[in-house]
Amino acid sequence: MRRVILLLITCHLALTAFSQDMTALVLKVKAKLDMVNDYEAEGRMKTDVAFIKAPIGKVRVFYKKPNKFRLKKDGGISLLPKGGVSVNMNSIFATTDFVALAAGEAVISGTKTRVVKLLPVNENSDIVLTTMYIEESNLLVRKMVTTTRENGTYEMELTYGQFAQYGLPDKVVFGFNTKDYKLPKGITLEFDDNEKQLTDAEKLKNKKGRVEITYTNYQINKGISDSVFK
Amino acid sequence: MWTLIQIELFKIFRRPRTYIAFAAITGLIGIIQFGLKLDGDAYVDFMMRDITSSITVEGKILNGYQVCYVVLQVLLVHVPLLIALVAADMISGEANMGTLRFMLTRPISRTKFLLAKFMATVAYTLLLLVWLAVLALFVNMILFGTDDLFLLKSQYVVLLKKDDIFWRYVWAFGFAALAMTTVASLGFLFSLFAENSIGPIVATMSVIIFFTILSTLNIPVFNKIKPFLFTTHMIGWKEFFDIKVNDANEAIIGSIQNPQKIINSALVLVLHIAGFVTASVIVFRKKDILS
User: Of A101, A199, B58, B197, which has the fewest CB atoms closer than 10 Å, so is most exposed?
Assistant: First the structure.
């Protein structure tokens, strides 16, 4: 009986210690990101959606603590996943009200990462679940899968370069779900008959979209006015 | 020859009927501009409702280039009817007035006389297109400003950068001029067969409406004849607003998706013009002028 109780206590301590490690890891990453009060960066944005033909556009990205984020295209029309690009790493770390659970390990782009599931404590949060793939040695988030209440699930893959010390990526690939696009020919006034019949693989591809933003020229902690985010 | 053309142009622009087309185009474009200026956002929301379920589109969608595209889509189907008003009156009008016989007593060949009339008809058509371009493109650029062009096709959307649009419109209007000249040459041909303008005008309009319906109906039995109808190729100007993408799905600025299709359509239209004009010359040289 004594041995059973001892075993149970040991298991409980092990589990508690294990979950505390994940929170500690997440807080370490947050502390690294917290070094950045604001940043402004130039970037090139590529929209890769099967039913959209769009050229690469120049963008400017602004961030200010705790969760102000704005992406502006340098003139022209921009196509962004609905509600998604504002889901950025810094805004997810803006709150400390979360539960971090370990979910094993994974290799992302050749880098070994710890998989952490973040559950917000706030029931009214738009974010329902975030899965982070954290490179423990450098405290960098390599990948993030976020499920939101209003706008579905998004994936972010982050690649780092010279700004890794601040946790700021050189490239972010944003993956999201899209709905099928089709308009009646009577509306678009197209009367030719060369409608392409899509294969199953193409139909599946139509349901996924990607936005790639390659950042250059970060200006960190230089101060940004709130009017930029209006 | 130039003197003959000048005389024919004078006769065209002396008639009030000539200005109906200019007034109609001015009124139509004015109404569209008024409507879009007042309620353009609702129109844009309606057009974008399918795509905004998964994509947020930010920027000035309703700009001068967009409005011009809307205007051209609507008008270039109906402008041929306005061109028929003048083109189908060129010979039959003279016959009706009794001046045709008198004109042919002059020491100029029938072929030269006919070609001068046809060149004047083409000049009128081009002037109408220039007027359309001024109102649809330049006035809209002033009224609505300029920005990227966001086009909704039936299976995909195209986003053209601001700097990559104007040259496309120049070529599109050039192609439209070719298309309208085809209509003018048809009306001109019909004009030879009557001594009253109503018949050729109605006949030209009827052919255009009939062929346009055949071109737009998606019935398999009609698909075999569609490539030979000039109305099928008249909307070829839209191909200037489609862009190629590379293997990484990046739009290639300055490219056209299917340039061969534009060339083929232009050739078909040129062949129609040549055919109608040649037939006109043959008919007119043998025609007995009895009016």
Answer: A199
Residue B291, in any domain of the structure: no
Nearest-by-Cβ selection for B251 from A55, A81, A191: A55
ipTM: 0.81
DSSP state of B288: -
pLDDT in tens, B191-226: 999 888 899 999 999 999 999 888 888 788 888 888
**What is the total count of domains within chain B?**
1
Q: Mean pLDDT in chain A?
A: 80
Q: A2-229: which CATH topology?
A: outer membrane lipoprotein receptor (LolB), chain A (2.50.20)
Distance from CA of B73 to the nearest CA of A (A): 7
User: Which residues contact residue B266 at a Cβ distance below 8 angstroms, ignoring those fewer than 6 apart?
Assistant: B175, B178, B233, B236
> CB of B53 within 8 A of CB of B87?
no
Q: What is the SS3 assignment for A7-69?
A: HHHHHHHHHHHHHHHHHHHHHHHHHHHCCCCEEEEEEEEEEEECCEECCCEEEEEEEECCCEE
- Residue B139 distance to chain A (closest CA, Å): 20
A63, β-bridge pairs: A39, A69
* Domain, as residue range, for B132: 2-286
All residues at 6 or more sequence positions from B33 whose CB lies less than 8 Å from its CB, including other chains? B67, B139, B140, B143
